[in-house]
Amino acid sequence: MESKVIWITGASSGIGEELAYQLSKKNYKLILSARRKEVLEAVKNNCINKNSVTVLPLDITEFERSETTVQKAISIFGKVDILINNAGVSQRSLIVETNFEVYKHIMEIDYLGTVALSKAILPHFIKNNFGHYVVVSSLMGKFSSPYRSGYCGAKHALHGFFDAMRMEHEKDGVRVTMVCPGFVNTNIAKSSLTADGTAQGSNDHATQNGLPTKVFCKKMIHAITKEKFEVYIGGKEVKGIYVKRFFPKLLHKLVLKSDVR
After folding, report:
1. Residues of 11-46 as b/e, b for ≥16 C-beta within 10 angstroms?
2. Mean pLDDT, the chain, as a whole number?
3. Is residue 193 helix, strand or coil?
4. Domains observed in the chain
5. pTM of this prediction?
6. Using an 8 Å Cβ cutoff, are 85 and 9 in contact?
7. What are the pLDDT digits (tens) for 30-80?
8. DSSP code of residue 199
9. Are 4 and 29 in contact, with CB atoms under 8 Å apart?
């Protein structure tokens, strides 16, 4: 595993940042991507083996640049073995109040950007007869919650696309691991889009009391090395996966009773 090249999107903060720190300790070669180059450089400088870490700025919504960006990523270390699709944005607004443009923007970031980048690198994976997509979805990709309709929709879509990817290209050595976080203590709630597209700007109780990123990323890396199909990482909210499967009406009632904001 130590010889592998890992490309992380959304690496400037939260889960992506912590993954960079933990993976650099294991001597992987890392490519860090996000929009803000200066923040990425700061993350790189905080990595243990920063000489094996390279920064590649990326706006995930610039679909037309996906193929060019992939070629740049490949040229850095000569290959990419694992693409961690971590870039994304959440939402906190009611359906009736939300502008359609907000839904469009969420879909471009959380779904279409990931699909464009993943499709662009697929020929490289096929040529090498190996490639591993790691997709940071959410428990909201398996069941839904009020105030997150667009986010839930985009995350559900990721599962549909990448389950098909796994089936179509297993013969080519392509792996897919869907990672579904519950509540993790990051800034995801602060940056969540509200009804008019502006950021919420504040955290919530559940997120503040979620898993520390260090704990979450350790579990996530274990799932990646085991090449698991799908993994759910969080607290008691993970039980919602199983309640949804067997008792969907009960989950509906439980979610409505919870503090979903």
Report:
1. bbbbbbbbbbbbbbeeebbbbbbbeeeebbbebbee
2. 96
3. strand
4. 5-257 (3.40.50.720)
5. 0.95
6. yes
7. 999 999 999 999 999 999 999 999 999 999 999 999 999 999 999 999 999
8. B
9. yes
Whether 195 and 93 have beta carbons less than 8 Å apart is answered as: yes
Q: Provide the 3-class DSSP secondary structure of residue 19.
A: helix
Residues in the chain: 261
Interatomic CA distance for residues 225 and 92, integer angstroms:
33
CA 208, 152, 251: angle at the middle one, nearest 5?
Answer: 80
Distances (CA, A) of 23 to 17, 32, 72, 113, 114: 10, 11, 21, 24, 21
A 10 A CB-CB count for 53 gives: 24
Structure tokens that stand for 242 in this block: 């199983």
Closest CA to 211 of 231, 193, 235: 235
What tokens does 82 get? 């694992």
Residues designated catalytic: 151
Q: Give the DSSP H/E element, type plus range, for residue 241.
A: helix 239-246
